[in-house]
Amino acid sequence: MEINTHNAEILLSAANKSHYPQDSIPEIALAGRSNVGKSSFINTLLNRKNLARTSGKPGKTQLLNFFDIDGKLRFVDVPGYGYAKVSKSERAKWGKMIEEYLTSRDNLRAVVSLVDLRHDPSADDVQMYEFLKYYEIPVIVVATKADKIPRGKWNKHESAIKKKLNFDKSDDFIIFSSVNKAGLDEAWDAILAKI
Ligand SMILES: Nc1nc2c(ncn2[C@@H]2O[C@H](COP(=O)(O)OP(=O)(O)OP(=O)(O)O)[C@@H](O)[C@H]2O)c(=O)[nH]1
Ligand SMILES: [Mg+2]
């Protein structure tokens, strides 16, 4: 499929099902802890500075943000998890919103699950991966911030992450950087293979 990735825009923000777009355009959702680089990943793939708003302030994205790409594909930016300063009730609301989307959305083709290449996955990262496997949702694990690790150490970090996640070999694993665009072509290839 030919997709003009320059033709991208924010479509809408949704808190629940009733706000989701009603059509059959394929969707790729982005999940990961707050600050891991989900919005930056979207901006890098679409070659845009700040289409998906990024910030040093974690917990900023509160709704499901749907991005239209040339009318043929959508990215769904999901609020990050694991931000300490979020109240219990906010956390429960978040859980409900994301669970509703992931378990009921027919348009969903795969989830890009972002982790930080520098660190072992958190308990929340492991739980998210297990959740996606349980619901048989295809996963593309993207290990971000690769620019902060020397290339010679990438393999070691990749192995540690895979082990902690109990990584399923049928999923994709991509080492990525929004700073130097490492992994950009692989990320697009993996996404296009799912839609
Ligand atoms: N060095 C480096 N910094 C990155 C990379 N990706 C994101 N960042 C930085 O990490 C911070 C958080 O990035 P965001 O893209 O806003 O993270 P997010 O996952 O969308 O965060 P929430 O919306 O709060 O869940 C920003 O300061 C980014 O500039 C990367 O590949 N390398
Ligand atoms: Mg964000």
UniProtKB/TrEMBL annotation:
Signal peptide region: none
GO CC terms, sorted: cytosol
SUPFAM superfamilies: P-loop containing nucleoside triphosphate hydrolases
Gene Ontology molecular-function annotations: GTP binding; metal ion binding
The keyword Iron is annotated on this UniProt entry: no
Domain EngB-type G: residue ranges: 24-195
Alphabetically ordered keywords of this record: Cell cycle, Cell division, GTP-binding, Magnesium, Metal-binding, Nucleotide-binding, Septation
Cofactor(s) annotated in UniProt: Mg(2+)
Transmembrane as UniProt keyword: no
GO annotation (BP), single: division septum assembly
NCBIfam families from the UniProt entry: GTPase_YsxC, small_GTP
Role: Necessary for normal cell division and for the maintenance of normal septation.
Recorded family membership: Belongs to the TRAFAC class TrmE-Era-EngA-EngB-Septin-like GTPase superfamily. EngB GTPase family.
Designated name of the protein: Probable GTP-binding protein EngB
Source organism of the structure: Streptococcus sinensis
The encoding gene: engB
